[in-house]
Amino acid sequence: MSIRLFDVEKAFGNVQILRRLTLTIHDGETVSIIGGSGSGKSTALKHMVGLLRPDDGEVYVDEQNVSRLDQESLYELRRNVGYVFQFAALFDSMTIAQNVGMGLKRIPDMSDEAIDERVAECLRMVDLDGTEEKLPAQLSGGQRKRAGFARAIATRPKYMLYDEPTTGLDPVTTAVIDELIVRMSDELGVTGVVITHDMKSAFRISDRIAMLYDGRIRFDGTPDELRACEDPLVRGFVEGRPELMEQVR
Amino acid sequence: MLHPVRAVGRRTLRIVGAVGRAGYLAVDAARALRKGSLWAPHLLGQMAKIGVESVPIALFVALFTGVVLALQADYTFTGAVPLYFVGTLVGKTMLLELGPVLTGLALSGRVGANIAAEIGAMRVTEQIDALETLAYDPVAYLVVPRVIAGVIMFPVVVILADALGIAAGLGTAIVRLDMSSFEFLKGLRLFFVPWDVWFSVIKSATFGLTVTSVGCFFGFHTTGGAEGVGRTTTRAVVVSTMIILALDAFWAATLLR
Questions:
Q1: CB-based contact (8 Å) between A96 and chain B?
Q2: B185-239 pLDDT, tens per residue?
Q3: Which residues of A are less than 8 Å from B137 in CB distance?
Q4: Helix (H), strand (E) at residue A15
Q5: Is some CB atom of chain A closer than 8 A to the CB atom of B227?
Q6: B63 pLDDT exceeds 70?
Q7: CA neighbours within 13 Å on the CB side: how many for B54?
Q8: Residues near B253 by Cβ (< 8 Å), separated by ≥ 6?
């Protein structure tokens, strides 16, 4: 079981976002994808769950070609994938408990009591117990993000895709989310892909880090290999030194 | 020199693209009808929102339309035509034209704009993507209950509007035109055929289909944040208004023979 992107091309109108992107995420690994804004990170992530289809190339999850699955098979596959959205994407008109329980309602034969129990358990995990009856608008940005996290893990997926899970959070909440990502991998063996700009988080949670630049993989290696990387573009990004990146451009 | 040609070409491509996307959405919606477990639980709520909550505005429009129709009929007939024809004109016009069309136009603003804005906001805040990742078919979950509710409830609202419009015409005839209710009802019955009611129902059902599906279509294809939501809301109202007027002519040409 793994996630594989092979030679993926994607353009929106005349703007080419992904250029022959090839990347493999092995079973049980947590891989962070870093890169500047507009480098195609979120686009790549959306391909992994079939929210976008490649113009060319193939995307495999669990050995299934995502871009060629019919709608029902795709929904079946998505039951094994949790997706944490950048701005949580909670349903405005529903309470937090209803939001977290949405995915569970799609599981056949799951009773309402079992759903309530799982919802409470997931909210406890993200330190949001007591917010069940609140609406998303009544929560802070960090709480909404954690509620989105709870919704994504509720179905106990085999794969977790995180789109900037810590952006905009305070350092303490960031550490809590990082800890959860690590626990998902270590304790439950979940395969994770994390889109992030936060290098501290990336080093803390990742087995491997890949850097996207101009729609392609510029670097792919362990956190230690990234620290030792001599590529000025990669170093410039990691160290926040644009002058290094300018040398290459 | 080439600019106007290019502009026309781009616009044509955009329109053809939109028609294609609308076709895909229609096919997806037809397929999604099978997924009753996703749309059925939301149907009653949407019927209340689209239908019941629209009754006040529809009745408001119908009330004044009935009054004006009676007064204008009296003004036009000027003694040359027997006054009981006021009942004929009010009844026929409300049922065949103004009841369905004015209600349809009023609801394209209220219902169509609401649907486009709601689904558009869900699109730009990734809530529709979230539905997909949670294995919900967003077409079955969002589009189908709204469209079915529109097709069912528009005729109900229009029949209520027709009835109030005619009643308002009757009241005006009695109070302002010195007519008896007997005279008005005589005129109302004179050329009445039950088909008129069916015509009103068929027309308003297609208006319901138009307003809800156009609202869903534009909402689904919203891009560009809050500004994009505003843009698609306006487009949804403009396009559904245009389709309602075209459908009005189409039904008159095909069903009134």
A1: no
A2: 999 999 899 999 999 999 999 999 999 999 999 999 999 889 999 999 999 999 9
A3: 71, 75
A4: strand A15-25
A5: no
A6: yes
A7: 32
A8: none
- Which of A102, A112, A144 to mutate: most B Cβ within 10 Å? A102
* Dihedral sign from CA coordinates of B213, B218, B222, B226: negative
**Is B137's Cβ below 8 Å from some Cβ in A?**
yes
Distance of alpha carbon A136 from alpha carbon A148, whole angstroms: 10
Burial of residue B8 (number of CB atoms within 10 Å: 0-12, 13-18, 19+): exposed
Whether the per-residue pLDDT at B166 is higher than 90: the answer is: yes
Contacts of A92 in chain B (CB under 8 A): 121, 127
A151 band by pLDDT with thresholds 50, 70 and 90: very high
Looking at this protein, which amino acid is placed at residue A123? L
pLDDT in tens, B31-55: 999 999 999 999 999 999 999 999 9
pLDDT band at A239 (very low <50, low <70, confident <90, very high): confident
SS3 annotation, B8-68: HHHHHHHHHHHHHHHHHHHHHHHHHCCCHHHHHHHHHHHHHHHCHHHHHHHHHHHHHHHHH
Which residues of chain B neighbour A86 with C-beta distances below 8 Å?
A: 126
> CA nearest A90 in B: which residue?
B127
First to last CA, chain A: 38
pLDDT reported for residue B2: 62
| Closest-CA residue of chain A to B130 | A89
Q: Residue A73 is encoded by which pair of tokens? A: 């098979």
Instruction: Say yes or no to pLDDT of B1 above 60.
Output: no
Map tokens 């502009």 to a residue.
B7
- Give how far A196 is from chain B: nearest CA, Å: 18
